[in-house]
TrEMBL record, chain B:
This is Branched-chain amino acid transport system substrate-binding protein. Keywords: Amino-acid transport, Signal, Transport. The keyword Signal applies. It comes from Succiniclasticum ruminis. PANTHER family: LEUCINE-SPECIFIC-BINDING PROTEIN, PERIPLASMIC BINDING PROTEIN OF ABC TRANSPORTER FOR NATURAL AMINO ACIDS. Signal peptide: none annotated. CDD domains: PBP1_ABC_LivK_ligand_binding-like. One of its GO terms (biological process) is amino acid transport. Belongs to the leucine-binding protein family. SUPFAM superfamilies: Periplasmic binding protein-like I (SSF53822). Coiled coil: none annotated. InterPro entries: BCAA_transport, Leu-bd, Leu_Ile_Val-bd, Peripla_BP_I. Residues 73-418 form the Leucine-binding protein domain.
From TrEMBL, chain C:
Belongs to the binding-protein-dependent transport system permease family. LivHM subfamily. The chain crosses the membrane at residues 20-40, 47-64, 98-119, 147-164, 194-219, 231-256, 262-283. This is Branched-chain amino acid transport system permease protein. GO terms for molecular function: L-isoleucine transmembrane transporter activity; L-leucine transmembrane transporter activity; L-phenylalanine transmembrane transporter activity; L-valine transmembrane transporter activity. The keyword Membrane applies. Keywords: Amino-acid transport, Cell inner membrane, Cell membrane, Membrane, Transmembrane, Transmembrane helix, Transport. One of its GO terms (biological process) is L-isoleucine import across plasma membrane. Pfam families: BPD_transp_2 (PF02653). One of its GO terms (cellular component) is plasma membrane. It is found in: Cell membrane. CDD domains: TM_PBP1_LivH_like. PANTHER family: BRANCHED-CHAIN AMINO ACID TRANSPORT SYSTEM PERMEASE PROTEIN LIVH (PTHR11795), HIGH-AFFINITY BRANCHED-CHAIN AMINO ACID TRANSPORT SYSTEM PERMEASE PROTEIN LIVH (PTHR11795:SF371). It comes from Succiniclasticum ruminis.
Length: 315, 428, 297
């Protein structure tokens, strides 16, 4: 227990240092606005990827409708600040709760499906959410919700990301997380062992959806607009790719996947015509050479830190 | 034991790319201690990060150098939909603008300075559009940005440009709100080179009621496009105010290919005309299918119809009794129009559509403003654009009103045997 | 005036069946590939697009007539399908299924964007290789092309069922689909069987692409994206891996879409299609014609 806390403190300190360095570089304008934007985008994508990893990686439920929850968060948050005049933190909470609640409602019936059937159902649900948004005039319909103030900045995004990551890490290591892992490994066996599989599947799904909602609020308050075109199934695929590329079930993998893909996309911005081609090729090649993702389902940190301490026992 | 930067770096790479088993197989047996390996690896990672940081810093310096070079050339950014759902519109717009740039550079540039185009792709998606605009302004130091083609993407990039005081000309963003702030004031840096939705919708509704003398019109609009939705709304308002009746208002989504279900429903309401505001990609299929199921009434539309593809896909006969509002026609005998159409055909080997024309116009507007302002300073440039008056563009003379909307001619064109013929000219 | 409810209902049914037969045409290939590899081949819709483009080149540039163009495009797409399988899927035979799925998405992005770059995103006008005749049956309207598409889908479905159930290659396919390892032990060449399935599935998609190109008169690089997803929905609806199921799913999906846009609202057409899928899955998780497979403990 002590050890866990020590590790947490260390990780917290490391992220504080990282934050200080990045913030310093930004203030010194070594990192220009373009890369600052992409850093924020990376943070959002890390939240999205790690939250999807809770569903797909830890619990083994194949969901590809994450963009729908992102959209719910984005719109609920924007309605809170723009239409109802609430403050930004409240909007974040509202977006998170709304997406989580929707995740719960959707998860309860659909998580009875498995494998590809669940995949296509979640894909469909993501599209249904988007089509509904297209048809609600109150939130702008097809034109999108414009005039959202930019309230998201690097500090908020970074620390929210850290908070989400800590939550997910602790969840994974908790009894609930172990139950989820058991479901992933063998659902029938888990069921036989007395694990309430439905409960844990819905729990992971709800939590994953709510974090996507958090990212959504940040998203719409950074790009000034919430527009249905931002939340198509292409975005769901993007997030899924980050998760799988990093390694299903590996939190550090999701972080790396999100950083890597966002970075590739940004670095290729100078070759607009070729960008998507190179991006797709990179996707194929990385998968061909690392089908289990960069980290498999292992975490990078444990190994590194343990090795640094001289490979002491893992307890 | 191996020492030195390179071997250890190689190992880091191998470890990063491959799994632990591989590492153990190849290095552990050489007696390399795992702990030491990681210590080295972490040191190298740190060093690599520092190097990367330094390079990034130098990169930043390089950017400033580029800015200094700007004395010789003028960098204009184009934020366009090059991939994704509406890539064909973005690409058309870009090619129109490229034609304007080529002509300007052939004529010796502006005050001896060549124009350099930097493009960025927004994947037809608003958030990417903000990203692309940031890149154009901060990395490429563009003095002005042209595009994107769709209103949603423009709305997302506009705050970035306004914050950096960089003028933006949106060639084909028709939503009225694009150039206006919340309080109704005009945004100082945002301009467009096309009609706004209410203008066109109004003209077509008047035309339907007064010239075609129809009483019952059905609407089929694209519910995923604010352009189409906006036009449908205005049309409904003006047409009913003129004593007409809207029999039904049906919707489709962009990229749809089968409209027979909606058309069958429309047919059952027996309208005297159908208003289909939208882009040619869908409209051409709508016209074709409408004629197939036996709807013979006039079809009315908007400037999104303007493309040779419309007649090609729908067929010449099907297009008869088609009327749409537009800013120009490629078959206009006016020398300015013909000059543009010929030049465009010469460069791209196809007849320009409305996006290409508006992209071209945006270029002319911008270059004219740079000439009159004699500077590339954003604020002064925006002032100069706002003062554009009687500028000869591809489709006539262009003047900006106080809301940064161009006052141009509006035409109602009729499709006859595949040709666009002028039916009525309004304003100008 | 025959604008009664029944009249409209029948006309919408006709519209729906014609739309559905297009989905079915794509879904047939989808379901075959899924059946053998358990892979959601997201690139299938793009193969359909590729087929349409090959057909376009054949008819408009090489000036071939309809049948040769169709055959060339089917062969071309079959080759493309085999190459994609060889390069992108075969090395991943033992990888987690989700990894292959990502590769499939990558291939789909790749095909779309290569076409955007080299063929421009502009839609192309498909030459009218045979003219459409419009038949008025009573008060209802049917287009000869709609009939051609429906018949092609039916013929291909029957042919496929025959191939899969009666021929040697088909037996090999079923064996591989049932248990790949056992099939290998029985002396079946798994690689060539899978390759063959891809060729067949891709050729079907290409046929669909050419027919749709002729029917709608226009093709573009993203034309496969939405039909690809819809066809997958159709395949799942009918019970994925089952050939008549794909046909049934396609028709049902088309009819649902037509009826929803005809009698409710066209804006919610796609939402309704997905909603029906989810509802059906909740009550019959294996799809309409799927067999209930008992979970193994």
């Amino acid at each position: 227990m002590n050890k866990v806390r020590k590790f947490d403190l260390k990780a917290l300190a490391a992220s504080a240092v990282l934050f200080a360095i990045l913030q310093g570089l930004m203030t010194a304008e070594v990192i220009g606005p373009f890369w600052e934007l992409n850093l924020i985008l990376i943070c959002m994508n890390v939240i999205l990827a790690s939250s999807l990893n809770m569903i797909n990686g830890f619990t083994g439920q194949f969901s590809i409708g994450h963009a729908g929850f992102l959209a719910v968060g984005a719109y609920v948050g924007a309605v809170m600040t723009v239409k109802l005049g609430f403050s930004f933190p409240l909007a974040i909470v509202a977006g998170t709760v709304a997406a989580g609640f929707l995740g719960f409602l959707i998860g309860l019936p659909t998580l009875r499906l498995d494998g590809d059937y669940l995949a296509i159902a979640t894909l469909g649900l993501g599209e249904i959410i988007r089509i509904c948004i297209l048809n609600i005039e109150y939130i702008g319909g097809a034109s999108g919700l414009m005039g959202i103030p930019r309230m998201t900045n690097f500090t908020i995004t970074f620390w929210l990301m850290i908070a989400v990551l800590f939550f997910i890490k602790n969840f994974k290591n908790s009894a609930h997380g172990r139950a989820c892992l058991a479901i992933r490994e063998n659902e029938i066996a888990a069921d036989t062992m007395g694990i309430d599989t439905t409960k844990y599947k819905v729990m992971a799904f709800t939590l994953g959806a709510s974090f996507a909602g958090t990212a959504g609020v940040l998203f719409s308050h950074y790009f000034f607009i919430a527009h249905p075109a931002s939340f198509t199934f292409m975005r769901s695929f993007d997030i899924l790719t980050m998760v799988v590329l990093g390694g299903l079930g590996s939190l550090t993998g999701s972080i790396t996947g999100a950083i890597l893909l966002t970075f590739i996309s940004a670095a290729l911005a100078d070759f607009p015509e070729w960008r998507m081609i190179i991006y797709s090729l990179a996707m194929i090649i990385l998968m061909l050479y690392r089908p289990q993702g960069l980290f498999g389902n292992k975490e990078l940190s444990e190994k590194v830190f343990n090795s640094l301490k001289g490979g002491k026992s893992h307890e | 034991m191996e020492t030195g930067l390179l071997p250890v770096f190689r190992k880091t790479l191998i470890y990063g790319i491959c799994n632990e088993g591989f590492y153990l197989k190849f290095y552990k047996r050489k007696g390399e201690d795992k702990m030491k390996f990681w210590k080295k690896a972490s040191r190298i990672a740190l060093a690599a990060m520092l190097v990367a940081g330094l390079t990034a810093g130098c990169g930043g310096g390089g950017g400033e150098k580029k800015a200094a070079d700007a004395g010789k050339e003028i960098v204009v950014g184009v934020n366009a939909e090059l991939t994704g759902n509406v890539a064909n519109y973005g690409k058309s717009m870009l090619s129109g603008f490229e034609l304007a740039v080529e002509e300007a550079n052939k004529a010796g540039g502006i005050d001896g300075k060549k124009i350099k185009v930097v493009t960025a792709d927004n994947k037809s998606e608003p958030s990417e559009s903000g990203n692309a605009a940031t890149k154009l302004v901060t990395q490429n130091k563009a003095i002005a940005v042209i595009g994107p083609a769709t209103s949603g993407c423009v709305a997302a990039e506009e705050p970035v440009l306004t914050a950096n005081k960089i003028p933006l000309i949106a060639p084909c963003a028709t939503a009225p709100g694009i150039t206006l702030q919340k309080d109704g004031k005009t945004k100082p840096f945002v301009f467009r080179a096309c009609f706004i939705d209410p203008y066109q919708g109004d003209i077509m509704a008047q035309f339907a009621a007064k010239d075609l003398k129809v009483k019952k019109v059905a609407i089929l609009h694209d519910s995923s496009s604010d352009y189409s939705k906006g036009l449908a709304e205005v049309f409904t308002k003006v047409f009913t105010a003129n004593g007409g009746q809207i029999t039904t208002d049906e919707a489709f989504l962009s990229k749809d290919v089968d409209f027979k279900a909606s058309l069958t429903k429309i047919k059952a309401t027996s309208p005297e005309a159908i208003y289909v505001p939208g882009y040619y990609e869908e409209v051409s299929k709508i016209i074709k299918q409408a004629r197939e199921i036996g709807l013979t009434c006039p079809m009315l539309g908007s400037d999104g119809w303007d493309s040779p593809k419309l007649v090609e896909v729908a067929g010449k006969e099907a297009c008869n009794k088609g009327y749409f509002t537009n800013a120009y026609t490629a078959e206009d005998k006016d020398p300015a129009v013909q000059k543009f159409v010929k030049a465009y055909q010469g460069k791209f080997n196809k007849v320009p559509d409305v996006f290409a024309m508006q992209g071209y116009n945006a270029g002319l507007i911008l270059f004219n403003a740079i000439k009159t302002a004699k500077t590339t300073d954003g604020t002064k440039l925006a002032d100069a654009i706002a003062k554009t008056k009687d500028l000869q563009v591809a489709n006539g003379k262009l003047t900006y009103d106080e809301k940064h909307n161009p006052i141009t001619t509006a035409l109602v064109l009729e499709l006859k045997d595949g040709k666009m013929t002028l039916n009525k000219k309004i304003g100008g | 005036m025959e604008s009664g409810f029944l009249h409209q209902f029948v006309q919408q049914l006709i519209n729906g069946i014609s739309l559905g037969s297009i989905y079915a045409l794509i879904a047939l290939g989808y379901t075959m590939i899924y059946g053998i590899l358990k892979l959601i081949n997201f690139a299938h819709g793009d193969i359909y697009m590729l087929g349409a483009y090959i057909g376009f080149v054949c008819t408009s540039i090489l000036k071939l007539s309809f049948l040769p163009a169709l055959i060339v495009s089917m062969i071309g797409a079959a080759l493309a399908g085999m190459v994609i399988e060889r390069v992108a899927y075969r090395p991943m035979r033992n990888a987690p299924r989700i990894a292959i799925l990502i590769t499939a998405i990558g291939v789909s992005f790749f095909l779309e964007n290569v076409m955007i770059l080299f063929a421009s995103p502009q839609p192309r006008t498909f030459p009218a290789v045979f003219t459409a005749t419009v038949y008025h049956v009573g008060a209802w309207v049917v287009n000869s092309q709609q009939i051609v598409i429906l018949i092609s889908a039916l013929v291909l479905m029957v042919a496929l069922t025959y191939i899969v159930n009666q021929t040697r290659a088909g037996k090999a396919m079923r064996a591989v689909s049932f248990d790949a390892d056992a099939a290998r032990l029985m002396g079946i060449d798994i690689d060539s069987t899978i390759s063959m399935t891809f060729a067949l599935g891709s050729a079907l998609a290409a046929a669909g692409g050419v027919l749709v190109g002729i029917y709608y008169n226009s093709i573009d690089p993203l034309m496969g994206m939405v039909p690809g997803i819809k066809a997958f929905v159709a395949a799942v609806l009918g019970g994925i891996g089952i050939i008549p199921g794909a046909m049934l799913g396609g028709i049902i999906l088309g009819v649902v879409e037509a009826l929803v846009s005809g009698f409710i609202s066209s804006t919610f057409r796609d939402a309704a299609a997905f909603a029906i899928l989810i509802i059906i899955l909740l009550f019959k998780p294996q799809g309409l014609m799927g067999k209930n497979i008992r979970e193994k403990v």
